[in-house]
Amino acid sequence: MMRILIANWSRRRAGGTETYLEQVMVALAARGHDLAFCFEVDEPEGRPAIQLTGTTFSVRLRPDLTGSIEQLGKWKPDVSYVHGLLDPDTEARLLDVAPAVLAAHSYYGTCISGEKTHKFPIVQPCGRRFGAACLALYFPRRCGGLSPVSMMTAYGRQRRRLALLDRYAAVVTPSEHMHREFVRHDAAGGRVYTLPHGIDVSVAPPSAREASDRLEPGSAVRLMLIGRLDRLKGGRALLDALPRVRTIVGRPLQLTFAGVGPAGAAWERHARAIARAHADLSIEFAGWLQPDALTARLAATDVVVMPSLWPEPFGLAGLEANRLGVPVVAYATGGIPEWLRDGVNGCLAPGNPPTVRGLADALVRCVRSLESGDDLTRGAIAAARAHDDGRHVDALLDILERAAAGADRLSA
């Protein structure tokens, strides 16, 4: 058995990464491994703490970085499993403690803004290799903000992260899309591996949907967007798509936004204007929901919409919806097409570039399918079950064990 140090920037459930961490810690502890956890900040406020199942102890790295590193060194971990840190200096010190494997949940060290998206003249994914040439495109393509100081600060931080990738024994990615991204940046000397999607956790009961739950004539279609309310999550595009969907399907639409973020206030204003102009559109901003409350909402939802304008590295919320028999509609960006099969467990809209009309048409196809039968419901449950077979943990442990034994064995 191994001593595995798990590192993350936050002690709280900030997003999909932390959901994954809770699941993988349960699985690693069940296999008999000793776990410890370290983090930089206890944020965002108001979010529940990550459930540290099976961990011996947890350590906050800052402000006493030297003392924390000494404490971790005395524990003598065999390997570190790192999930992204805010400060490259902290990351560099952590890499001195034990051989490390990075989980690439984001464009870590491969993009100035970390978003891998051009926002002008249209929003579309960026396929460039990160480097000095990105500075020349930063303002013309609106890769980030308009401050030269912020641009140079972000560029310097990502350059340092890219350099630190050479110190990792391996990088693991959630999708082939991310695998390609890190291979072309020669991360960890090319030792980049895509893990199978599923973790060996129990699948939620399929509910009556598995038998049949087609939409009744004239009933409202219940939609949900889950996640951070950020411009690139596509909430504005979803709002703009609703009138077209309503006109074509001839049904009332009920949309719930489950999350918080900087675009929330603007989206709420836009939603009120749309609802005033279209009586059969109901739009609710429910805020950030506790896991049990979110599961209950999902169980009463017909379609989860993931209209991300940026190339999502994976899109874990989609498979979580599938576990409850809820199909997903999303743009075909990033790693999403690797688990979302059009017409099987949801519907895909063209993603390069993503358009309002393309999203609306994908939603219409999804609703029409739900009207005619339960194929998408069955497909959603089947897709979730296909990913819950334990292969993820088996593959991860193989990489962690080889990293602990020496990076040279990872090339074998």
Task: Summarize the topology.
Layout: E1 3-10, H1 16-30, E2 34-41, E3 55-60, H2 65-75, E4 79-82, H3 88-94, E5 100-103, E6 117-118, E7 124-125, H4 133-138, H5 148-164, E8 170-173, H6 176-183, E9 192-194, E10 221-226, H7 235-249, E11 253-258, H8 264-277, E12 281-285, H9 291-299, E13 303-306, H10 316-323, E14 328-331, E15 346-349, H11 356-372, H12 375-386, H13 391-405
Parallel strand pairs: 1-2, 1-4, 2-3, 4-5, 5-8, 8-9, 10-11, 10-13, 11-12, 13-14, 14-15
Antiparallel strand pairs: 6-7
Helix pairs in contact: 7-8, 7-11, 10-12
The strand count comes to 15
> What proportion of the residues is helical, as a percent range?
25-40%
- N-to-C series of helices and strands: EHEEHEHEEEHHEHEEHEHEHEHEEHHH
Distance between the termini: 22 Å
Helix tally equals: 13
- Given as residue ranges, the uncertain stretches (5+ residues, pLDDT < 50) are 200-212
Shape: globular
Q: What is the makeup of the main sheet?
A: 7 strands, parallel
Class derived from helix and strand content: alpha/beta
- Give the tally of structural domains: 2
CATH overall fold name of the largest domain: Rossmann fold
CATH class of the largest domain: Alpha Beta
Strand residue content: 15-25%
Numbering strands along the chain, what is their spatial order in the largest sheet? 3-2-1-4-5-8-9
- Mean pLDDT, rounded to whole units? 92
CATH H level of the largest domain: which superfamily?
A: Glycogen Phosphorylase B
- For the record, the CATH architecture of the largest domain stands as 3-Layer(aba) Sandwich
Radius of gyration: 22 Å
